[in-house]
Amino acid sequence: MAATIKDVARLAGVSASSVCRALAKPEQVRPETRERVERAASDLGYYPNRAARGLITGRTANIGVVLPDLANPFFPSVVKAIQTQARRFDYAVFLSDTDEDPALEVPLIRALAKQVDGFLLCSPRAGDEELRAFAGHTPIVVLNRRVTPFPSVTADSADGMRQAIGHLHALGHRRVAYVAGPRTSWSNRDRLRGLRSATSTYDMELIEAGNVAPTVDGGAAVADLVAASPVTAVIAYNDLVALGLLNRFRAREIAVPERISVVGFDDILLAGLVTPALTTVAIAKEQIGRTGVDLFLDLLKDDEGRKPVHKRTPTQLIVRASTGPAHL
Amino acid sequence: MAATIKDVARLAGVSASSVCRALAKPEQVRPETRERVERAASDLGYYPNRAARGLITGRTANIGVVLPDLANPFFPSVVKAIQTQARRFDYAVFLSDTDEDPALEVPLIRALAKQVDGFLLCSPRAGDEELRAFAGHTPIVVLNRRVTPFPSVTADSADGMRQAIGHLHALGHRRVAYVAGPRTSWSNRDRLRGLRSATSTYDMELIEAGNVAPTVDGGAAVADLVAASPVTAVIAYNDLVALGLLNRFRAREIAVPERISVVGFDDILLAGLVTPALTTVAIAKEQIGRTGVDLFLDLLKDDEGRKPVHKRTPTQLIVRASTGPAHL
DNA sequence: CAATTTCCTGAAAACGATTCCAGACTGACC
DNA sequence: GGTCAGTCTGGAATCGTTTTCAGGAAATTG
Fold it and tell me: Which among B70, B112, B250 has CB closest to A92?
């Protein structure tokens, strides 16, 4: 159906090799033949078959992106940034959503492995060992998590938590709850770690509420539990969970922020649109995606030349209406 | 690096052809060799190179998904459904975000064309002619738009608009504004068509407000214009636009729904979480994605056997708090 | 004008898989 | 035991590229 290099060669009256050269390294062929080839190619609407090229060059110009849940608005933002940056370098994106299932991750990666030059794993849920075991020599960059020996890009959660806790402390809060996300999530552990350190710095009491799914429903599920505990503020694993809390609080007529302040994490679009608008720790989503691609391309260039790189992107507390002075 | 079929053949002490058969058509080889091959394959962690296979079989088991903007929460939902259904048939997904740029569409498709068995175009912005011109014999299924001669899946906007207008009419509204989306969007034209028919049925007056970007900012941009016009209700091209309206109305202390009722379209997650919760026309996003994949696979099976199929998915008005009785 | 270099080109091999074809072996049957 | 059918296997061709290699033409040099 589609034109191949041979069709172009025939039409231009040259060999396939010349067509290849004319298109890939124009300086190596006579201007005249180059022009003939170019015209033939455009007449036939010829575009090289990247899969075939990949077979021989070992470079597919495809990048595999794996993430736990496209329905979480955080990820589309990152993916979009990845897309944009990848396209800039003529890379195409393979997308795989694992549905928060750690067991699905490695098989999915493996199935795609030969069709891509490597992977960007966004918030992978699989175990470190598992990832390492797979990685053979497939280039892998990890986003929102650190797994030696892979290069990674993470948000500076510790600093974000410090800002959040500083803000709450200034408002008079002394007891704060944390609604934890998935146990398998490195971000969750990282945020908790940062939070613990921040609360101890400020000498505040931290109450941890069970692990929930990183969704609105997950937040709603523990809202009553949080409300029943002796805290004046709650920090959620992410914005979706925070919104679940807000929703349930409203349903029960628990005033936010008068009775309890709520802080989210990620700063998804939603956060600014609900009422009360959500105070949250913004993550540089675009930067994470973009940097991930850059690290990935570096990785491809100097094949295992040097030490793994860890980039940390800044976080920024966005104060909106869901936080206020502590009651009592 | 990675094991090839030859490595497996060597380890198992058989030829490459036998390895291929043992794995693809187990009944054609002796149980003993099959077992040897299977063990060798799993020892080496062998997975066939799909690109190489695609070269010869002409089937890549990849599906290309093209959409205008991943940042619009509508699309991730659809993509997720596509993923899930595609995976069920062992298909992987190539994703391309065109950034609402009609001119980017065809080149992007073309670049991917050889690596996929065909495309699912979500709300493509390119012109009909352009799409047809490209399509050569690449299987294409169109979502959220109808373009002969491609199979397509669309939402029943007309019915959705009928429901919305019926609802508003019952609440006493007689003059309603429509905030139009991108001019290049078929959905926009379709919704407008449905809306015109519905308002004329109910003998209501329709005022159309300029075309805006399908984003929150787009909605905010025309909110004042809408407020200044003599309407008691407004229907937005989609939920994001509706949210932009809500936001701006709140900023200006224009009461919703007391002074003006607002209706969205799509029913994205956000819609139920804002205050007032948005009345909107829900679209069967998952069904659209799923059906799209099914149509696509059908298309591959009986190669151009029969007439193009157009599926229409139901819409459902979700009444929330942003609509109420007309004032005056 | 001959010798040497440079430039350009085509043939052939390779990438990793699948499939067709033909041959080897097994067993059944006469 | 010989023939035949049937089962299983390996070799070779193939897909669409890229790349290496070598050779011919043109250009340069003495």
Answer: B112
Burial of B132 (0-12, 13-18, 19+ CB in 10 A): middle
Euclidean distance between CA atoms B190 and A9, whole angstroms = 46
Q: What is the mean pLDDT of residues B108-118?
A: 89
Domains assigned to chain A? 5-48 (1.10.260), 60-154+285-312 (3.40.50.2300), 157-284 (3.40.50.2300)
Q: What is the mean pLDDT of residues B231-237?
A: 97
**Segment B82-92, tens digit of pLDDT:** 999 999 999 99
Question: For the segment B38-57, what is each residue's pLDDT rounded down to a tens digit?
Answer: 999 999 989 999 999 999 99
Question: For the packed helices A157-170 and A186-201, what is the interaxial angle rounded to 10 degrees?
Answer: 40
Residue A328 has pLDDT above 70, yes or no: no
Using a CB–CB cutoff of 8 Å, tell me whether B216 touches chain A: yes
Asked if the bond preceding B276 is cis, omega within 30° of 0, the reply is: yes
User: Would strands B315-318 and B279-283 be described as parallel, antiparallel, or unpaired?
Assistant: antiparallel
How many Cβ atoms from other residues are within 10 Å of residue A249's Cβ? 23
Check: CB of residue A176 under 8 Å from CB of residue A165.
Answer: yes
Using a CB-CB distance cutoff of 8 angstroms, which residues of chain B are in contact with residue A242?
Answer: none
Task: Judge if the beta carbon of B60 is closer than 7 A to nucleic acid strand D.
Answer: no
Distance CA B239, CA A112 (A): 35
User: Chain A within 8 Å of B47 (Cβ-Cβ)?
Assistant: yes
